[in-house]
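WP5 quarterly update. Target: Bifunctional protein FolD. Source organism: Halolactibacillus halophilus. Length: 285 aa.
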Amino acid sequence: MAAEVIYGDQLALSLRQEMKEEVTALKEKGIVPKLVVVLIGDDPASKSYVSGKQKAADFIGINSELITLVDTTSEQALLDLIEQLNNDESVNGILVQLPLPDQINEQAIIEAISPEKDVDGFHPISIGRMLTQQDTFLPCTPFGILTMLQSKNIEIAGKHAVIVGRSNIVGKPVGQLLLNEHATVSYCHSRTKDLKAMTKQADILIAAVGREEMIDASFIKPGAVVIDVGVNRTEAGTLTGDVDFESAKAVASYITPVPKGVGPMTITMLMKNTIKAAKNHHTKK
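Structure tokens (predicted):
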């Protein structure tokens, strides 16, 4: 029996519709969520991501502003801009699109954003709050993955989740979120010995390593839930994930596609975090 496909684009659309109604109600109370995205340089992938974020914001009714800077921008100039946005009462969320040019220290920029406006969920304070299960902004891709699992009522507690990849943006935080939901979590990476022996133990397998179709059916325990976070462009110019979708689909119980899987959910959770930031700011006034 083939796996049920979890279409993130469909779930994202229904969530955005709910958010649109919520924002309309907030505006009637004088609360207008605003997101500022800072884009440095003209990387085509970054431009595409930013365009997706703006479209989502427009649909939901969130005010979004794009600030574009040349790729020779200095770290100090960017820090000055962030300080200005931190102090701007009308701005609820600040997102600096990664990756950044070599002359700018990524961590310094992440840490400069006020935790109250950290809608990406990357600030060490946000990560610390997530680790200790306090209320915070969750990193958008892991938050999206958790929401997808919950949308299908997939049991997480007591299950063995295996994460392939240990990035600060996806791998580490998604493991922590699943741990918070009472899963047993294993992290795998480039130095893991016998990767296949590990992945075949997974009830929930999350591939977030950035290698085209490296996970095929032979890596998957029959009936496992497979979440594919990878976005790789093939030589033919098409997009594919870290999972060989067709072979994996025959073994898994649930699987996410690429595209139309995790990607749309990442942007949707960014919008959710922005609305939360606006409500938090209004409550503190």
